[in-house]
UniProtKB/TrEMBL annotation:
This is MAGUK p55 scaffold protein 4. Keywords: Coiled coil, SH3 domain. SUPFAM superfamilies: L27 domain (SSF101288), P-loop containing nucleoside triphosphate hydrolases (SSF52540), PDZ domain-like (SSF50156), SH3-domain (SSF50044). Belongs to the MAGUK family. Residues 396-585 form the Guanylate kinase-like domain. Residues 217-287 form the SH3 domain. It comes from Pelodiscus sinensis. Residues 539-590 form a coiled coil. Pfam families: Guanylate_kin, L27, PDZ. The keyword Metal-binding does not apply. PANTHER family: MEMBRANE-ASSOCIATED GUANYLATE KINASE MAGUK (PTHR23122).
Length: 604
């Protein structure tokens, strides 16, 4: 402990000189602070305490080192500590310490190998013997029969697996023996059987691959646009080595050497060993095969909602508090009491019913046409990068995915905007219907001619559009730009078609799905809720509505889940609203995975 104390004091003293840059002090300071010296000091002190006897004489190397240090100290002002240090360096204990270092440093710890036999034939291929100690983990390598030679070779080594970590097995290595059993003439399955019976050490005798591929892999991150279950895939080389994934999950691809099978990890578990996933090309092929093997399912995704099926009989059962919409021929201003006319944009009844109409017709169409541009067949993986919005960049567009009708998208959007109307705003939609006397152009709607509206659609400047009672309604990209250009956060609700249009470098949408809770929860929370319909307002939710909502949500999630950045369950309205608010801020201020094409500006 005496030595340690002195050294600490010396270091403190030297640190002062260090700052003044006195000749050579830096070198000395680093030397005395070096971990090896500290470690040796500890060893020395332990030995000193234990043995308490005279140490061995110093070796020439130690002496040389100590002389060097003494030399370095010459130019340093002679403070008490420096004097102490010089004394220390002359001390036999310290010399013994250096001597111990020299002895350890000179010792050869390499194993002594037996000499090679003299009678090795000239053309003998170099063999490698590899011993691996198997724990509960799989070996992390697959084998196959070589297409040309018929030899059993290592097909691939899984990244991060036991074989990979050993650094002793490589793809292409030819197996000669496994645990002393020659593999010549055996089927790969028989070799695997031998391996599966092995506990503890496995010994491979192999001929190393001559031209080991130089790894030029760059790590790639992708968003899975489809689900994959290796245990259900008969074509996977080794089902246990497969990596299951679901739509929307982010994967880190670590190996693309094989045309058919890549290696990847879940980004949520990067310490795990990689697993096999089908390559882009293979997964696309599988999806097509899977699709064609399915029977034709009309209306497989969503039925149109019951609100369009109101019959005379239904009318009889409707709550008497319902108001017939005959009285509502004119659109009601839903938020007239708020005093904020900007609130009205995008919430008008006709706009909502128009959306609902186009939604019910489109979703059944997507279910029937999976090869449409919205289907996952187009790109099973989407390359993504981590993106954090710079504070001076425009805000990201917030999209609430139009989920099941009545789930509460409008309610949540309205509440969010109400929390801070100066920050959150809807985009003002366009319509071809006539402007009413109490309306203002650009406030509730942009009132345009049919021709202008159609031009906007044909020039792909409409995020979404539809028709209701003979009039066109829609939200334009320019309307969104206007809100974002004012430095505000634009909140819109869109369907799949609109989402595809909005997914651009410029808008960088953050997409949230508002999901209903279970039917039993909704029975409680929706007791006083009212829905607007084509015919009635203030209509209570019926049991079938709740069931329909739950079923629709499941189908939407299964079909479009890959596009969702966040899923919010709207059970307790207050809580859902707070979650929405926090997600909106996260989207703007925290790093998120976004398509790589949004960031590489040259692709724009
Ligand atoms: N978590 C909730 N708890 C109780 N009531 C709710 C909740 N969320 C929404 N509601 C109520 O449910 C009704 C329907 O909500 P809303 O109009 O927002 O649905 P929507 O998803 O916008 O429907 P649509 O897309 O068909 O217009 C409203 O009366 C709303 O106040």
């Amino acid at each position: 402990s005496g030595l340690s104390l002195v050294l600490t004091l010396v270091l403190q003293e030297l640190s002062l000189f260090c700052k003044k840059d006195v000749n050579g002090v830096g070198v000395l300071f680093d030397l005395l602070r070096s971990p090896w010296l500290q470690a040796l000091l500890k060893v020395y002190e332990c030995l000193h305490q234990a043995v308490r006897k005279k140490t061995d004489p110093v070796t020439p190397q130690a002496r040389a080192l100590s002389r060097e240090v003494v030399e370095l100290l010459r130019g340093v002002p002679q403070s008490t500590e420096i004097k102490e240090l010089r004394r220390l360096l002359r001390n036999p204990h310290f010399k013994a310490l250096l001597s111990a270092h020299d002895t350890v440093a000179q010792k050869d710890f390499e194993p002594t190998l037996p000499p090679l036999p003299d009678n090795i034939p000239e053309n003998e291929e170099a063999m490698r013997i590899v011993c691996l100690v198997k724990n509960k983990q799989p070996l992390g390598a697959t084998i196959k029969r070589h297409e040309v030679t018929g030899d059993i070779v290592v097909a691939r080594v899984i990244h991060g697996g036991l074989a990979d970590r050993s650094g002793l097995l490589y793809a292409g290595d030819k197996l000669v023996e496994v645990n002393g059993v020659p593999v010549e003439g055996l089927e790969p399955e028989q070799v695997i059987h031998i391996l599966s019976l092995t506990q503890g050490t496995i010994m491979f005798k192999l001929i190393p691959v001559s031209d080991r591929p130089v790894s030029s892999q760059t790590t790639l991150y992708v968003r899975a646009m489809a689900d994959y279950w290796p245990l259900q895939d008969p074509a996977i080389p080794c089902a246990d080595a497969g990596l299951p994934f679901k739509k929307g999950e982010i994967l880190q691809i670590v190996d693309q050497n094989d045309v058919l099978w890549w290696q990847a990890r879940q980004v949520s578990d990067l310490s795990a060993c990689a697993g096999l996933i089908p390559s882009n090309h293979l997964l696309k092929r599988k999806q097509r095969e899977f699709w064609w093997s399915q029977p034709f399912l009309p209306h497989a995704c969503l039925k149109s909602t019951i609100y369009f099926d109101v019959t005379a009989e239904d009318d009889m059962q409707i709550d008497e508090k319902c108001v017939e919409t005959e009285e509502l021929k004119e659109e009601e201003e839903e938020f007239s009491g708020s005093g904020q006319r900007v609130f009205i944009a995008g919430f008008r009844r006709s706009m909502r019913l128009c959306r609902r109409k186009s939604r019910s017709s489109q979703q059944s169409c997507y279910a029937r046409c999976p090869n449409s541009c919205y289907s996952t067949v187009a790109a099973p993986y989407e390359e993504v990068v981590r993106y954090q919005r710079h504070p001076t960049d425009r805000n990201r567009l917030i999209v609430l995915y139009l989920g099941p009708s009545g789930v509460g998208v409008n309610e949540l959007r309205r509440r969010l905007i109400g929390m801070n109307p100066h920050l959150f705003q809807s985009a003002v939609p366009h319509t071809t219907r006539a402007q009413k006397s109490y309306e203002e152009n650009g406030c509730e709607y942009h009132y345009v001619s049919k021709e202008t509206f159609e031009n906007l659609v044909y020039s792909h400047r409409m995020l979404e559009h539809g028709e209701y009672k003979g009039h066109l309604y829609g939200t334009s990209i320019d309307a969104v730009r206007t809100v974002l250009g004012e430095g505000k956060i634009c909140i819109v609700d869109l369907e799949p078609q609109g989402i595809q249009m909005a997914r651009t470098h410029e808008l960088k949408p953050y997409i949230m799905f508002i999901k209903p809770p279970s039917v039993s929860c909704m029975r409680q929370s929706r007791k006083n809720a009212r829905i607007i319909t084509d015919y009635y307002v203030n209509m209570k939710f019926k049991e079938e509505d709740l069931q329909e909502m739950e079923d629709s949500a499941k189908k939407i999630e299964a079909q479009f889940g890959q596009f969702f950045d966040q899923v919010i369950i709207n059970d307790n309205l207050q809580e859902a609203c707070l979650q929405l608010l926090s997600a909106v801020h996260q989207a703007q201020d925290e790093p998120q995975w976004v398509p790589a094409t949004w960031i590489c500006s040259d692709t724009q």
